[in-house]
Amino acid sequence: MSDDDPFAVLGVAVTATTREIEREAQKLLGMLALGVGDVGTYLSAAGPRPRTPEAVRAAAAQLRDPRQRLLAELMAGAAPPPPAPPAPVAAPGWPDALRRAGWGPR
After folding, report:
1. What does the buried/exposed string (b/e) look like for 22-53 if buried means 16 or more CB atoms within 10 Å of the residue's CB?
2. What is the pLDDT of residues 32-42, one digit of tens each?
3. Is residue 100 assigned to a domain?
4. Which residue of 15, 25, 43, 75 lies most exposed, with the fewest beta carbons within 10 A?
5. Residue 98 maps to a domain
């Protein structure tokens, strides 16, 4: 596995329990095998990265080991946060439609 944060690979919080980590790893492996959902990529500190079954297994194994998990928790706290997603663009439309229909303040 690369130097990526195993918590990001699995998409779990640093505070996740072992049971939650195992459940998420199994769910991701199943979804990757079936090709369902948008689980083929994850957001790391370096930007979007491909999520492979090997990366999921390696991340789960790393978080099973108490020493490696502690190191991953420390590194996750030290890593810069991933970039924020772009702000949604306001849809063009009729801004006062609700008021004109009698639903807004008068």
Report:
1. eebbeebeebbeeeeeebeebebeeeebebee
2. 999 988 899 99
3. no
4. 15
5. no
